[in-house]
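Example 9 (inverse folding). The structure is encoded as follows.
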């Protein structure tokens, strides 16, 4: 059930967004959205931010060795260029689909 709706920057203390919870080492922990922040915009619908109660938040789960290894493997796979098969040394942007040298070279 959705709670109260507040204007941008006018939410009472005790509420936080997911990012704010994460910065405090917390997660929503399965709780429903407690409130909504709305920021009006011209010619479009309002920007919306969902708020959760801090007192009901749970601590972030610790990273397990298996999860850390899987994350490292996934990140490494996103650094290999599918065109030249070289390690680019950075995460290849999905918008390019290949490393910058391959993208810039006329083919």
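The amino acid assigned to each position is listed next.
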């Amino acid at each position: 059930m959705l709670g109260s709706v507040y204007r941008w920057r006018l939410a009472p203390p005790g509420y936080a967004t997911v990012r704010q919870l994460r910065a405090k080492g917390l997660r929503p922990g399965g709780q429903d959205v407690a409130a909504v922040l709305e920021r009006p915009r011209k010619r479009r619908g309002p920007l919306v931010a969902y708020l959760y109660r801090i007192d009901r938040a749970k601590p972030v789960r610790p990273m397990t060795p298996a999860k850390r290894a899987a994350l490292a493997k996934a990140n490494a796979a996103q650094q290999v260029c599918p065109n030249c098969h070289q390690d680019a040394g950075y995460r290849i942007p999905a918008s390019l689909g290949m490393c910058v040298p391959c993208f810039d070279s006329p083919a």
